[in-house]
Amino acid sequence: MNIDTGNTGFMLLATSLVMLMTPGLAFFYGGLVGRKNTLAIMIQSYLSMSVTTVLWYLVGYSLCFSGDVMGIIGNLDMACLRGITVDMVFNEQNRIPLMVFVAYQMMFAIITPALITGAFTNRVRFGAYLIFLVLWLLLVYFPFVHMVWGGGILQKWGVLDFAGGIVVHAIAGMAALASVFYVGRRKVKDHGPHSIPLVALGTGLLWFGWYGFNAGSELRVDAVTALAFLNTDVSASFAATVWLIIDWIKEGKPKFLGLLTGAVAGLATITPAAGYVTTSSAVIIGIVAGGVCYFAVMLKNSLKWDDALDVWGVHGVGGTIGIIMLGIFSTTAVNSTGANGLMFGGVSFFLKETIAVIGASIYAFVFSYVMLVIINTVTPVKVSEIDEEAGMDQALHGEEAYL
Length: 403
What we know:
Elements: H1 5-32, H2 38-65, H3 98-116, H4 126-149, H5 153-157, H6 165-183, H7 196-214, H8 223-251, H9 256-270, H10 279-302, H11 311-329, H12 347-378, H13 385-390, H14 392-397
Helix pairs in contact: 1-2, 1-3, 1-7, 2-3, 2-4, 3-4, 3-6, 4-6, 4-12, 6-11, 6-12, 7-8, 7-9, 8-9, 8-10, 9-10, 9-11, 10-11, 11-12
């Protein structure tokens, strides 16, 4: 079968945009921490780029998209990309090379565990994070990709997730919360954010890359691609504005950091619904995201959870309410492959989405916490107070971001 060059070119661009999100995340997180901890948090994102790629080639793609074992995980028939040739296409609808789909999904696998790192900044040893990264991909991320996108039990049940509300944001956010509870509070106060311009650069790269993340999830160029693109920007913009206004009212001044954080919350929240809802619904989703995620962060602060970079409040809560609002606002009027949500008589679909995201969140939290407990029996997870005082850059890596 001949490939569609237009779709293929677009998907290569979308894949590149999603890849750019991981360095963007590194800049975003790097600016939020203190000067002595900048490299230590940034290297964790870049480590995921390399290690996840290796794991994806060896077993990841196969476990996600080859075969089916009890509806939970794939098999190893395509381990090391066995049997995938240059002339194979993904399907008849988009006619892109299968290798492009492999690469596109790999970029999702790279950024998802990197999101978690913001929760335990300044407190986790590098070796322990490396083990956690591998185990989390194998035991949490790969199963959920298969269950939701790879022909597994949730996909067969009718659960929809356009670009990763469950698969990326909800499970990463809950894994982050489990990490917060396990590693505890920092013993040494971190004087971050040390560079809001660095956070702004990271936000810009994330926002730019998110178009590939959401619009690219249609896997071809059509009207739904355009819808997902527009909805992504609309939701981010409304969420950023709402967060800024609330922050302005409460703090007395408009905060740049609040505007940036609100944008990311809007991006995370629209992700599962981008190609299934109208743009008017995307406006509502953005407004809700800005308000709910803001107050989730305030709740976290009042409970003194040391989620250093608000991974749970932005990604965990954002992904969860995004899935729930997908269950409310989804309509086949804009995407015939979708479903009608609660607003259009789809009570069953709404319940499926809600049950799925709650179940996924519980699974991710429990497995992530247990993994950290097990890892700690092999190598200490937490750094010492001396290392915290010295700063992670010097203590763990012998390098400094600023001389």
